[in-house]
């Protein structure tokens, strides 16, 4: 069972939406924190702010489960939450959403659906 989750920065109200197949979403949150500690992985605002929060990370950031879903549906559900919440930390979320939808439309069109059905 997959999970879609939200990580919320209580200081600036910015959000991050993600998905995981880990049994505990808290494990995925811990992985985000750990990866922020390595310079090469601090490639975006989310990881930089996780890193800069230091020992206060758990006072500044909180995570919650948005929903549980079948593993096969996790990316579609993540896209749903990205489009609904418009999380600021998903810096490539808009581009990711557009390209994923575009690819889905092309796949359905090539699979025999007409553009009106899609």
Counted beta strands: 3
The CATH homologous superfamily name equals GIY-YIG endonuclease
Count every helix, treating DSSP H or I runs of 4 or more residues as helices: 5
Morphology call: elongated
Summing up helix and strand content along with how strands pair, one would put the structural category as alpha+beta
H and E order: EEHHHEHH
The total tally of domains equals 1
Q: Indicate the CATH topology.
A: GIY-YIG endonuclease
**Uncertain spans:** none
User: Which CATH first-tier class would you pick?
Assistant: Alpha Beta
User: Level of helix content?
Assistant: 40-55%
How confident overall, as mean pLDDT? Answer: 83
Strand order of the largest sheet: 2-1-3
Distance between the termini: 28 Å
Largest sheet: 3 strands, antiparallel
CATH architecture: 3-Layer(aba) Sandwich
Strand content: 15-25%
How does this model look, in words?
The protein has 118 residues and is of the alpha+beta class. The chain has one domain: GIY-YIG endonuclease (3-Layer(aba) Sandwich), CATH 3.40.1440.10. The protein contains five helices and three strands, in the order E-E-H-H-H-E-H-H. It has a three-stranded antiparallel β-sheet with strand order 2-1-3, sandwiched between helices. Helix 1 packs across helix 2. The chain is elongated and about 55 Å long. The relative contact order is 0.20. The model has no long low-confidence stretch (mean pLDDT 83).
